[in-house]
Please model this.
Amino acid sequence: MRGDRGFTLGEVLVATFVLAIGLVGIATGFQYATSGVEQGRGETTAAFLAEQRLEWLKSLALTNWTSATLEAGTTTEGYGSIADAALYRRVTTITDSPGGLCAANCKLVRVTVFYRPVTGRGQLDQERRLDVVTMLVARS
Model:
């Protein structure tokens, strides 16, 4: 007799157990990967919204340095007020000649974008923020 009778019940159960553990590991990996992709999307969108505001202010500074929009102060756009970005809020702070570094022809601009990333379980996580800072200088 050569033993061509197949697998025993014990061998099949062990193989099934090993396969099940491997599948659980893969499923957990997918959950972490999805969460990471979602977090990356949130960071990328926040960076885009901050750069969008800075580019708009830069173009305004080039055409009209004395615009009321470029006066020192803070502007807040709440959740739902930014076009195509309802899950984000943005705070823009402009400071005239910060720290005496320059005369009246420069401004420090800080754009902060806040958002709540979605976790792997679909819940909104704690609010996160992204800051972008630049200096605007008037052309002479």
Observations:
- The longest strand covers residues 106-115.
- Residues 9-63 form the longest helix (55 residues).
